[in-house]
Amino acid sequence: MLDYDDPEIEAQWFEVRRNEVAEYLGREGVAHGEVGKAPAWHLSPYVSIWAVESLKSPGSVGWRAISGDLPTDYVSAKEIKHPRDAMRAIATLWKEASEYMLRGEKHPTFAIGAGDSNGELAPMLASRAETLLGWADDPEVWEDDDL
After folding, report:
1. 0.70 surpassed by pTM
2. Measured distance CA(13)–CA(103) in Å, rounded
3. Mean pLDDT, to the nearest integer, of 125-147?
4. Which end of the chain is more exposed for a tag (fewer CB within 10 A), N or C?
5. Within 13 Å, how many C-alpha atoms sit on residue 114's CB side?
6. Residues 63, 54, 48, 137: is their CA dihedral positive or negative?
7. pLDDT (tens digit, 9 = 90+) per residue, 34-92?
8. Backbone angles phi, psi at 101, to 5 degrees
């Protein structure tokens, strides 16, 4: 098992996640600037939240992306200023999407996967959403942050 307290191992994990975010945003057609050199928040090797530069306003955060042992996704940073809020927003959307999937319906604004494995994907998405919501609401997870 890898020691994620080792700075070299953690740096490698960061680089993989960073590339994952950049590739995902590219596939999604999201016009963006730089992805942060390191995550804005992380819990290695499970989850990382990334600041993604806005093209419209260089130097400012335009998007927040999530990557790790879960689906890669993103939200606009227009109303979301902190990684904790990004985690909560993404988790809330995933929870809602999983409920639609379990009912065999398409979410009106969000798609994940090709739709052919919703039976498998919905419980996993719901589980990840619940975990993220728990972390977002846990002050100990964020105790090193200036909130």
Report:
1. yes
2. 36
3. 87
4. N
5. 2
6. negative
7. 999 999 999 999 999 999 999 999 999 999 999 999 999 999 999 999 999 999 999 99
8. -60, -45
Question: To the nearest 10°, the Cα dihedral for 58, 112, 94, 118?
Answer: -170
> How far is it, in rounded angstroms, from Cα 97 to Cα 102?
9
Neighbours of 2 (CB within 10 A): 11
Domain boundaries, the chain: 7-142
Q: Which of 80, 74, 7, 4 is nearest to 35 (CA)?
A: 74
Q: How far is CA 137 from the centre of its chain?
A: 16
CA distance 63 to 74: 7
pLDDT of residue 13: 96
Instruction: Name the pairing type of β-strands 41-43 and 61-68.
Output: unpaired
SS3 49: strand
Q: Please report which helix (H) or strand (E) contains residue 75, including its range.
A: strand 70-76
Query: Average pLDDT of 7-20?
Result: 95
Residue 119, SS3? Answer: helix
Q: What would the two tokens of residue 21 be?
A: 């975010």
